[in-house]
Write a structure and sequence with these properties.
- With about 100 residues, the chain is α+β, with helices and mostly antiparallel strands.
- Helix content is about 20%, strand content about 30%.
- It has 3 helices and 5 strands, in the order ββααβββα.
- It starts with a strand and ends in a 19-residue tail after the last helix.
């Protein structure tokens, strides 16, 4: 069965490997088959097609195993700061208001 393993060691860099594994292989076996050093994925979260998974999860054909880096900034905080820098008039619903339109539309 074919499986893809993807990992992004840094922003805008993606390592992707196609593997041919036996039926019933687990996420841990797929990560070991990549040949990447254990410290590359040890202690990081993994998922299958964007959904969090455990290392003992059985894989299906054509699954995409993803190794996730930890977040450097909380997305909610980043959005709040970005909104504060842009100001209320330049972001969200108020950015492209029709001339003569009601506020927020």
């Amino acid at each position: 069965m074919q499986v893809t393993v993807a990992h992004s060691p840094a922003p805008r860099q993606v390592k992707e490997v196609m593997l041919d594994l036996p039926e019933g292989a687990t996420v841990a076996e797929a990560l070991q088959a990549t040949g990447w050093p254990v410290q590359t994925w040890q202690g990081l979260d993994v998922g299958i097609w964007g959904r969090k998974a455990h290392l003992d999860t059985r894989l299906q054909p054509l699954d995409r195993v993803e190794v996730y880096r930890p977040l450097r900034v909380d997305p909610k905080v980043a959005r709040r700061e970005r909104f504060g820098r842009q100001g209320a008039r330049a972001a969200g619903l108020f950015a492209r208001r029709r001339p003569g339109g009601k506020p927020g539309y």
